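User: I need a structural model of Response regulator from Bacillus timonensis for a docking pre-check later this week. Nothing fancy, just the predicted structure tokens so I can convert them on my end. Input:
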Amino acid sequence: MKEILIVEDEEIIRAGLKVLLEQVIGGFSVREAKSGEEGLSLLHQRLPHLIITDIRMGAMDGLTFISKVRQISKEVPILILSGHSDFEYARTAMKYEVRDYLLKPINRVELSETISKLFKDKEEESSETSKQFRKILQYIADHLSHEITLKHIADYVFLNPQYVGQLFKAELNQTFTEYITEERLKRAKKLLKDTNLKVYEVAQLSGYRSPKHFMTVFKQEVGMTPVQFRKYS
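Assistant: Understood. Predicted structure tokens for Response regulator:
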């Protein structure tokens, strides 16, 4: 079930949207925040699949809230609701990659269609991202015995290195470094188990230029030295 965070300072509107999304449209779980500050607090707990926010609120207005959301996540879709058909607000919102801008009172058919389209577009984007990410993982597998940096990968797939780093968090909930270390150690363990290669050769084939560094990392992550692992495997 997809989770939607509603950030709206008018309780009657929040309650109405919750009923509309959970019971009328259906298929959604709603969390509510009565202010931008409360919304940010909930975001730090976990990211929803969609944020719906009013644009004019008390202490923190919708645009300030959105700008802070984008510091936390560039990916979560945002939908703005407003009683003000203010073009400048809409234009400013688009700078933060807001998906759509709907006016109150909310037309439930329009809201339903907007959300359906938004999630359909998001699924298509995820599909394309997954294809790119599989290409990245294959590159790593093919070059594991060599030095691999985010820049190497970014150049290979024509993406920004920072974005590639974010992909690892989004797809695997791991950092790039954590993934590389895990894959190098998987290869090392297989080589130690299945071959009679010397430890320094295993280190080299697993992408470690320094056998000493390899042994330090191996013991730290596996809990025993490479020689001990080979003996007891």
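Before docking, keep this in mind: The longest strand covers residues 2-7.
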